[in-house]
Specification:
2 copies of one chain form a homodimer.
Chain A lengths: L2 H10 L9 E2 L5 E2 L8 E2 L2 H15 L4 H4 L5 H13 L6 E3 L3 H19 L5 E5 L4 H14 L2 E5 L4 H4 L4 E7 L11 H10 L3 E5 L18 E4 L14 E4 L43 H15 L6 H23 L6 E2 L11 E5 L4 H10 L2 E2 L1 E3 L3 E5 L7 H17 L5 H4 L6
Parallel strand pairs in A: 2-13, 5-6, 5-7, 7-8, 8-9
Antiparallel strand pairs in A: 1-3, 4-10, 9-10, 11-12, 12-15, 14-15
Helix pairs in contact in A: 1-12, 2-9, 4-9, 5-6, 10-12
C-alpha cells in the first residue's frame, strides 16, 4: 500500500464529501475526535446567531420565541435517532458525570425497593475514571458496593447479587466494545438493571437501546456528536421506568410545572424529570449544530455506512502500524476483531508513549496519550480520510526512526494529556 | 418629576457611559436583567474566537493553550472579587441547582459528624423553588427535615436544633435582602452552618462572605453577571471547611489528579473538589466576558457606586408608581427601606399581574411575572438609565389606564413567564 492507494480509497469513498461540513485546520491530521470532535463549519454562525440574535436582541423572550425552553428535548430527540431511542425519551443537559449520578442513584433506589438484598454495582475496572468515582459516591451514600472486574470477566460476574451493571459501552482506553445485547439480557435474567455510558459509541456506531431492552443510558456531547468543548451530555431511560424513576438532582426544570413556582417538588413526566437547573444555552446550541451535521450524513447510508468506513480506517491503521512500524515496541491493545472495536485504535509503548504522542502532535498528527502507557488514535468517519491514515503512519514511523521523542520538550508533561 | 428631570439625572450620572458596554435592542426598555442579564458588546467576538480559534483551529490542544483547563478557576477568581471571597476560593461550573446540591449535601455531612442530633435545614418558604426542591432531596436522602418559615421569621427560627440555614440572600419575588451578618452570626452561635444563594445579589450589591464568616455560597452566572442564557453558576466555601468537605458529585475534574486516570476518587484541594464533569466551555467563555464587563465598571467607584445607582433607580420607580399609578390596585411588596431591597421592585396586582406584564412587554418595556400575582421590575445599574425608569412608568400608566391588558393575547399564558 502507498499514498496513491489511500488517495484512491478517498476518491471512491461515498462519504468523502461529508468532510466539507467540518472546518479542519490546514496541515493538521486530526485523530482525536474521540476526545473532542472537530468543529462543523455551520457552528460559528449558529452560535453567533444565538449570542447576537437570540440573547442580544431577543433577551428573555427567547425562552419562548427562540425555543430555548425545549432545546434540551429537541436536541435529545436528535440524539435519540443515533441510539435507538424514541422521540421524547432523551434530554441533553448537564455533564456526563452529573447525568451518570442521576441515573445510577435512580437505578439504585429502584433496586432498593424491588430487590433490597442486591447491593452490588458491577463495573469494569478500566471504565473511564469519572464513572468509577461517581459510582463510588453513590455506593457510599446508598449502602452499595462497587465491584470492578476486568472487561473480559464482566459477563461471568453478573450474578444474582448484582443490582446494577454499569458499563461504558466502548472502552476509552482500548476501544473494546462490550456486547450490549448479551450483557443486558444476562443482567435482566439475574434481576439487575443496566446503565450504559455511550460516550465513545453514540455517533460512532449503531446503538439500539430499545432492541436490547436497556434500562438507562447516558453519553457525551463533545466527542462523536461534535458539540464543542464541554458540550452538554445526554440521558435516556427506558419508558418502563418512567413512572417510578426519581433522581436526586431535583431542580426546577425537572419539575412538572416549573413556572407555577410551587413549594413542593413534583417530577415532570418522562425523561424531563432528569433535567435539573437551567442548561447552558450557547453550548447547547453548538451541540444542536453538531447533531445536525451528523444527521446530515445519515442519508448517505445511515450509521451503518459511517461504521463501515470507521472499521476500514481502523483496519488500515492497524495493518500499517504492524507492518511498517514493527520492531519499535508498539503493542496493539485494541481488539483485532473489528466487531469488538470502536472507532479508535490504541497501542501501548513500555516507556515513551507520552513523548511519542507529543512528537506526533508537533508533526501535526493530533492524537492523545492515556496514562500509564496508551497511545490513542481516533478515526471519526465523518471527516477522517484514508490519506490521513497514511500520513499518520508516515509521521509515526519518522518519529520512531528518528527517536525525536527523546527531545526534552516532548518528555515534559502538560496539564491535559 | 418629568422626562427632562430623568434625562438630567442620566447626564449627571458618572456610570452612564457603562451602558455603552452592552448591546441593547432599539426601542426596548429592559427591566429584566435580574432574570437574564443583557449581552455585553464584547461577548460576540469573544465567543466567536472560542468557537473558531480555540475549538476550530486549536482543537484538543486548547485545553492547554487556550487555558480551558483552569477557566472555571479563572472565572471563579473574577466572581470572588464581587462577593468578598479570595483568589482560589470560587469555581464557575454546573448550574445553581447542581451547585446547591453539592454544598447542601456537603454541609449536611459535616453536621452529621459534628452535631448528629441536629437534623433541621432551615429556609424561607418563599425561597426560589429550585432551592426548596434540592433541599427536599438532600433531606430525604440524609434524614434531615426541611423547615420552611416566612422570611421575617428566619432569625427567630434559628435554634439549637437547626443544622443548616439555607437562604437566598435577595428574595427573587420581593427583592428583600436577608441580613447576612446577623443571620450568619446567629447561626454560628447555635452551631448551624450557613448556605447562601447569591443568585440575586452577586454583581448587584456589595457582598462580603469573609467578613461575615459564611460557610458556603453559590450563585448564578446569567443574571447580574451577564454571562448569557444558562451560563454556568458558581460555588464557594470558606477555607476552614476545605480539608473536610466532601461533595457527592465526585466527577473526574474534582479529582486531585484527573489525568492520572486512577481508579479511586481523591478530592482536589480546596474549591476545585466542587468541580464534577467537563464544563461547557463556550458558555463559560461568555460568562468570563460578562464578568470582564462588570469588573470594568469597578474603577468607577466600585460596587458601592453601582449599588448607589441601583438604589436611586428603585427609589425613583417606587415613588413614581405610587404617585402616578395610584388607584390601579398595585401594591408594593418590595421593602420600602432601600437597605433591605435588592436591585428589583415588585408589586402585586390581585388579578391581572400576568396580563399587565404582557401588555408592557408589547410596548417594549420588558419585565416579568412571578406566579401567582407578582410583577417584577429589575434595575441593573450597569445599563439602566433614569430615563428608562421614566418611560417604564409612562408605559405602565398607559397600560393601566387603557385596560389593554384585557386583550386576549395578553391573557394567554406562555411557556416561560
Amino acid at each position: 500500500m502507498n499514498l496513491q492507494d489511500a488517495q484512491e480509497l478517498d476518491a471512491a469513498d461515498p462519504l468523502a464529501p461529508l468532510r466539507e461540513l467540518f472546518s479542519l485546520p490546514e496541515g493538521v491530521i486530526y485523530l482525536d475526535g474521540n476526545s473532542l470532535g472537530a468543529m462543523p463549519r455551520a457552528t460559528l454562525e449558529r452560535v453567533a446567531r444565538a449570542v447576537e440574535g437570540e440573547w442580544g436582541k431577543g433577551l428573555i423572550s427567547s425562552w419562548n420565541t427562540a425555543g430555548w425552553m425545549d432545546l434540551p428535548q429537541r436536541v435529545g430527540d436528535k440524539i435519540a435517532q443515533l441510539i435507538g431511542a424514541k422521540p421524547g425519551e432523551v434530554v441533553a443537559t448537564d455533564s456526563t458525570s452529573v447525568n451518570l449520578y442521576k441515573v445510577l442513584h435512580c437505578a439504585s433506589q429502584l433496586q432498593l425497593t424491588d430487590a433490597p438484598s442486591k447491593r452490588i454495582i458491577l463495573t469494569e475496572i478500566d471504565n473511564f475514571p469519572t464513572d468509577l468515582y461517581i459510582a463510588q459516591s453513590v455506593c457510599e451514600q446508598l449502602g452499595f458496593s462497587l465491584r470492578a472486574v476486568k472487561g473480559e470477566d464482566i459477563e461471568a460476574a453478573i450474578t444474582n447479587e448484582v443490582a446494577i451493571v454499569m458499563l461504558t459501552h466502548t472502552n476509552y482506553r482500548t476501544g473494546r466494545i462490550h456486547n450490549m445485547p448479551h450483557i443486558t439480557a444476562r443482567a435482566h435474567v439475574h434481576g439487575a438493571l443496566t446503565v450504559w455510558d455511550l460516550a465513545h459509541s453514540a455517533g460512532a456506531m449503531e446503538v439500539d437501546l430499545h432492541a436490547v431492552h436497556a434500562d438507562f443510558a447516558i453519553g457525551c456531547g463533545y466527542k462523536y456528536l461534535n458539540g464543542g468543548p464541554g458540550a452538554p451530555a445526554f440521558v435516556w431511560m427506558h419508558p418502563r421506568h418512567a413512572s417510578r424513576a426519581r433522581q436526586p438532582l431535583s431542580g426546577w426544570l425537572g419539575h412538572a410545572k416549573p413556572f407555577d413556582f410551587s413549594h413542593d417538588y413534583a417530577p415532570a413526566s418522562g425523561i424531563t424529570r432528569f433535567m435539573c437547573g437551567t442548561p447552558p444555552i450557547l453550548s447547547l446550541t453548538a451541540l444542536d449544530c453538531g447533531l445536525d451535521t451528523l444527521l446530515a450524513a445519515l442519508p448517505h447510508g445511515g450509521m451503518a455506512a459511517l461504521r463501515k468506513k470507521s472499521v476500514a480506517l481502523t483496519e488500515m491503521f492497524i495493518a500499517q502500524v504492524e507492518s511498517r512500524c514493527a520492531g519499535f515496541d508498539l503493542t496493539l491493545v485494541s481488539p483485532r476483531e473489528s466487531a469488538q472495536r470502536g472507532s479508535q485504535v490504541s497501542f501501548t509503548h513500555p516507556t515513551q508513549g507520552y513523548a511519542i504522542i507529543q512528537a506526533l502532535i508537533a508533526r501535526g498528527v493530533v492524537d492523545d496519550f492515556r496514562a500509564p502507557d496508551i497511545l490513542r488514535f481516533g478515526f471519526t468517519p465523518l471527516y477522517t480520510r484514508y490519506e490521513d491514515v497514511w500520513q499518520a503512519i508516515e509521521a509515526l514511523l519518522a518519529v520512531l526512526q528518528s527517536r525525536e521523542y527523546l527531545k526534552p520538550e516532548f518528555q515534559q508533561r502538560k496539564a491535559v494529556t
